[in-house]
């Protein structure tokens, strides 16, 4: 191969190397080009092959960096594999080593040849093939320069890949930093409590943080892009604000820039809110933007307002309100205090508090002040203080610590109220309630009083027993804690507060030992002297026993219902006096009525009974009343959707002493499942009988029409179907179904309807679908099947309620027709029955096919016979024609074959051969010298004796005749007759030298007839020898040359019967 | 005995075709059909689609310049080839012409094919392309990266012999052009390809190409160089006027290191002097001018038959599918080409040979060989029981 050729390949590979900048595409492309050029179908590349790390087993862990052409290896790209070091290392090599290559991952044995090309310190390329591809190129040397270039390219591509990865990493890192920064700003902005908004130089809102959404009510998407002033500036300030902004946009300055002010802003809800606004200028892209930070100060404003209000309240209070420093110096003193203690504010401000405290309570004062310093509040402390006039005054004192902004206690306030009147009233009350108390304690029902906060204020002994807790443990605690349902208890208490009273409120008291007491609570509010509600008085009644009885009753009813549900048994009763009828739940279920919508009425009952059974039911009940006997009947229910249910109904009536009926008690049990099972069995039995009868018909059938009609009759008379018919699919344009047999009631129905098997409305009935789909098709309820619409009215008028059609299949499993059956009630066909009917349809189709086959067979047989006859006649004619052709060449023997044939036939008849055999013999004899066609005519016709050579030529004629005729398919051994007609019984004949019985009888006859006729006829080489000489010849050689029986027959024919040639 | 899986109708006879489809479907309910039509019967595609729709038979097919039947080329009629079980087929329209697009389509095809392959069974990815798709070799390279030796590759190009755009690939509903019809034959042992064009000695380089157009040879306008080469080598003066007459006898060969050539027949001369070939010519491919190439018919047929025998055993009594390149017929002449068909039929002793005159062929002269796009070849495989 010339250098230019090799260089051009290297050039092409070098270009492929130069066109890639990344390692993986470089290796893949290189492999592709190498496979393309070398006819190796697969290859792989491993880089960084460290052969020194090979294991003791000679295997090395390497990474597959590229693979082309091998499905398994391509799936391992980038993965570590274990390969023989011998395959990967060493100089360039082209070799065949199936064992070495079987170590490759994947299916072993697929490679036998390899080409290893080391890539100059970078790795190795291995090409693989099932067989070593033909080439006259030194591939191991050829690619050396390419491998050197490839190694450099790999190095460059690795740098490039690393550089690219670095750039990508750097870019990713910058993007991450930017994203983090943005995220940080977003987080700060989102978390800021102050609204942060920004407007551009057209006063359009361009930034709006979550706090702005919260404070101003607008979502960011609603605010952004809107003019600031229209959105947020109250109308009255708007013109001024816009003027100010116009000045700002040119200079970035203005009277409010860099300042904080309190202003009003419009909230989304239309209200104005107070905000503290700080504005700063921001220059972006050469334009002035304004950034505003708004703080909602509505709360602060409200607090200030409240403070003012509180001061007014304090001043106007009847209670003495004062504030003091921590050392007890009075700091403020309201007019209530002036009225209570008799001192003016001027007199008391700056005075020690101890001045108001009796000497015996100074310790109490110290205690109060200490507790206040600790941050404690003291509420409603009942104590005594000294008025200016020296009177000791009972007061209720509430003292609270005052704190500074840091929460430090810096003083305290005290509110004092005169409780002189209350103390007196309490004393009186204490006396009055002693009697009541004794009554309460005597009560067996737990009694409790509850304050407005839900705290227990009083309990009796029974409550202590019910809870297991002492009076002291109960007082002041939340009353709801002692019930199993605290929420419910609180709701009852609140109801009492709201409505004034609660009756029979069920709760459960939880004893501390876990025991639960069901109670009914009755509660009412009680009021103080002024009529205000002070709390709730509640009395509980233990209803444990009552509950137990009710529970028992419920369980009993539930068990009964469950039993009824399981047994599908419902009960009813009719109070004959009040005419009130009641049903159990199960009856509603059986009748499929909603107890919420339907009452138990006799009409509902009657409506559900199948129309045909209503008289039966009525009669049974009437008779039962008349005869005072229970009744037990089975009748049907008809459901709204047409389904039928079977029920067993029993009824018994109770009478008074005078015999007057009082109460009818009855049960209704749904026995549909059992009844359907019975019906199914009955139907299956019926279908089984029908199937059996059909089989009988099939066995006896000799005629298709009779078969089909008999089957239809069996299906109607034994199967009990209303109508049965068989239709065949016509392959006309309309795809009609032709009815070929029918039986049953209202057969004229079939004359009224049109049924097809195309996908049209008239083809979507059961028969059409069965033929199209090859599956049986059922219409369980003709009334409701939309596909039956074209025939529905006629079918219902004929009393048909359901129908099934079963396909009939030919030998190729094509449906050629269908058998259709009709029942007089819906759902007449169940699964078991259908199976039997399918079997029947299969048998019927088989019967039709068999009859068809039988007819066809008879026809074929007849035709065969006819054909045979025709063939024989044609053969006879042909042979005759051949005979004439032969004899034309030998006019002296004209008629020899015909005469031999006549004599042979006569001998055969004499010997009693059958007619067919005689026909064959006639044909064989007619052309027995056909082989002479190859004997030169001058020999055949030359007068005089033949030379030995000429005679040898003559002697080949049986063989030639046989050769001519041997391949002609004839029903008789004509060729053999021709071959053997010069054989002799003693084996002295030719061409085979056969003996005795080895010679065909026909040939034995033919040889006698041939000799006889020859001797009796004139021949070209001699005159006729005469009849007697001929008979003498055959008689003399009887048993040696000729078959004795044949000779006898021939002699008898000619001598005794006067047979002439 | 099984019904024959191939049937040639000399004309599109509705009744006969319907009857055949019905009888086929009786024996093989899940069957489908591959229909091959000559371009003169292109109007019959819609007809076949309607007939198959009526019969509920799955259909795919293609239109070729002519059909191969009974050792003759036929320009009328239709071949119907039965799949006993309709295999996975896919029709891709408007195939991308850029490298990235080709890689994406190949990846998509690869994943679809992988999902269809059953176990370890040998399968053949049989591809029929519109001959006007310019980047078939690239698509084959990309497919080989995806599927490697998991499948055997075989196929042919359909379309008009005049290389005029024509919707030539179809299924039951669609008829498309500039696309590809994939048929996943399984189980199937692949196909065999041979051409017998002798390798040349003199090389040139296609320095600028675009798909299947050679813009420059040795850095000069392609046609100019082509004219010079033909003139120098054979004394023939190729002009714009007689280009079609001579080009088929002076095809290009793409050189491979195993001394085999891929034939690229220039079939059209563009206004700008570029040469439009059947099949892609990669940039900077080393070309040679196959000067009135000597074709060794005997060797071609022996290679083909020997390969088939290795694949399938004795082809006696089998049914074969054969694609015969239209360019080869033009080069050899009708008589010699028909002679090759006759000889192939005789030597193969096949029961029937169905096929078409194709505009490019896909395959390899070895089983498991690298799949290449060829011109001037014969591709043969066993049908249905491959």
Explain the overall architecture.
- The complex is a heterodimer of chains A (1061) and B (386).
- Chain A is α+β, with helices and mostly antiparallel strands.
- In chain A, α1 packs antiparallel against α2 and α36 (1001-1016) runs antiparallel to α37.
- The radius of gyration of chain A is 64 Å and the shape is elongated.
- The two termini of chain A are 91 Å apart.
- Chain B is built from nine helices and 26 strands.
- Chain B has helices spanning 14-27, 44-55, 99-116, 136-147, 222-234, 243-247, 297-312, 326-332, 334-348; strands spanning 6-9, 32-38, 58-64, 66-69, 72-74, 78-83, 88-92, 124-130, 152-158, 169-171, 175-176, 180-185, 192-194, 204-210, 213-217, 220-221, 252-255, 261-264, 266-269, 275-277, 286-289, 319-325, 352-358, 361-363, 372-374, 378-382.
- In chain B, β19 and β20 (275-277) form a beta hairpin.
- The longest helix of chain B is centred in the first third of the chain and has 18 residues, at 99-116.
- The two termini of chain B are 18 Å apart.
- At the A-B interface, α1, α2 and α3 of A face α4 of B.
Radius of gyration of chain A: 64 Å
Largest sheet of chain A: 5 strands, antiparallel
Overall, the morphology of chain A is elongated
Radius of gyration of chain B from CA coordinates: 20 Å
Sheet bearing the most strands of chain B, described? 8 strands, antiparallel
Q: Tally the helices of chain B.
A: 9
- Low-confidence region ranges of chain B: none
Proportion of residues in β-strands of chain B: 25-35%
SS elements, strand count of chain B: 26
Mean pLDDT of chain B: 88
Structural class based on helices, strands and sheet pairing of chain B: alpha+beta
The overall average pLDDT of chain A, rounded, is 85
Strand arrangement across the biggest beta sheet of chain A: 3-1-7-6-5
Poorly predicted spans of chain A: none
Number of helices of chain A: 38
Q: Helicity level of chain A, as a percent range?
A: 40-55%
Shape descriptor of chain B: globular
Show the largest interface.
A-B, 42 and 30 residues
Determine the N-to-C terminus distance of chain B: 18 Å
